[in-house]
Amino acid sequence: MTTLKNVIVTGGAGYIGSHVIYVLQKTRRYKVISIDNHHNSHPAALDRVSKLSQSELPDDATDADRESTKIESYKCDLTQPEQIKAVFEKYGKGGIWGVIHIAAYKAVGESTQIPLTYYANNVSATVFLLQVMADYECHRFVYSSSATVYGTPPVIPIPESTKLQADSPYGKTKVMCETILDDLCHSDKSWRAISLRYFNPAGAHPSGQIGEDPRGRPGNLLPLLAQMAVGRVKDATLKVFGNDYPTPDGTCVRDYLHIMDLASGHVLALDALAPESKVFDANADAFFKAYNLGKGKGLSVLQIVDAMRKATGFDYKYEIIGRRRGDVPDLTADPTLAEKELGFKAPANLETMCRDLWNWQTKNRLGYDTQ
Ligand code: WQD
After folding, report:
1. How far is Cα 92 from Cα 326, in angstroms, rounded to an integer?
2. What pTM does this model have?
């Protein structure tokens, strides 16, 4: 039987995590172990991913293929090192091939109100995870970072060489963890790490079986618009946070990419950590790199509203209110480094993102809480 590589995905039951697990399973080369505290996710998502992967198995699937569609799931709080250790202990030293660390709190505004909670959950937890990985001889790490590390960037589109200058505690947690990874990889070349700076993921798997289902009212624009259109969010009017930005229509511009393209970028990054990969120069001081995951195309809030109006048929009303703390005018990626070095591509367009988001939301009006 082909030997599958055990990979831990933290935040595996979440929006990004569940789509990353799906694409990992498609490779038939990895066996996924999910760690999640379900703070902002639903265990049902993991069952859905497995069922989706199993439904796509070929008739001549091998035992290893079938095994690759199963998920071993642990409810675990990453701020508790003992809980992390208990998971790694089940697989023994060298038993985990790599870790994709997605679990984090991610609301910019919230992070300004409860910074200590963000530093504990996003930074301390990452340190604890890396320490346990070292104890269990696991040295391959893909890190979920964010375009918010750039703060208000001086150049658009934004290259990875841009100075990191996050404005919010959330963004600073991402900068701190990238710094920790850089120092760790410089200290010990047995470590290989890639940080993925997400721009704005959107949409859902085209089957509508998995999708974005944050607990409580969505903070992000697209899931909010989708929930407004199905009546899950009762607001009749969208509040647009400012139209006095230096952008074409005055509203903020962001780089939206399809969640499936973002998820595929994670497999490319994980594969790049393999010893035979050419991504890292053998003579480099450290095996650590950061890549933007974006399309390189900026779209404004009003353009998104218009696209969702077309996709859903819902007649969105909006009112312009004051700016939201932590928002910056434009976060549009220069995606060329990931395209060149990882072979990353983000071909899906806005219409496809909105169509797949709407397909998910109409099939799951209450998200994963189907009762
Ligand atoms: C998009 C635009 C808002 C809601 C977030 C996270 C970031 C990253 C990506 C993880 C902004 C405007 C929104 C509303 C609005 N996640 N908006 N009314 O802020 O670009 O990034 O997701 O890495 O960490 O912060 O996405 O969807 O919240 O906002 O006008 O009710 O929509 O001002 O300009 P954002 P978003």
Report:
1. 42
2. 0.97
Residue 200 CA: nearest ligand 1 atom is 9
In this structure, which residue's CA is closest to atom 36 in ligand 1? Answer: 220
Per-residue pLDDT, 82: 98
3-state secondary structure of 214: coil
Residue nearest to atom 1 of ligand 1 (CA): 221
Look up 74 and say whether it is catalytic: no
Q: How far apart are CA 39 and CA 42, in angstroms?
A: 8
Select from 153, 306, 40 the least CA-distant residue to 12.
Answer: 40
* ipTM for this prediction: 0.96
For ligand 1, which residues put their CB under 6 angstroms from it? 106, 108, 146, 148, 198, 200, 219-221, 224, 239-241, 252, 254, 301, 324, 327
DSSP conformation letters of 225-242: HHHHHTTSS--SEEEEE-
CA 291 to chain centroid: 13
Strand partners, 291: 196
**How far is it, in rounded angstroms, from Cα 81 to Cα 68?**
27
Q: Exposure pattern of 342-362 as b/e (b: 16+ CB <10 Å)?
A: bebebebebebbbbbbbbbbe
H or E stretch covering 341: helix 336-341
Give me Rg for the CA atoms of the chain.
20
Query: What local confidence, expressed as pLDDT, does residue 233 receive?
Result: 95
Task: Quote the CA–CA distance of 204 and 241 in Å, as a whole number.
Answer: 25
Task: Say which residues have a Cβ less than 8 Å from residue 275's Cβ, sequence separation at least 6.
Answer: none
Burial class from Cβ neighbours inside 10 Å (0-12, 13-18, 19+) for residue 242 reads middle
Q: So what's the pLDDT on residue 114?
A: 97
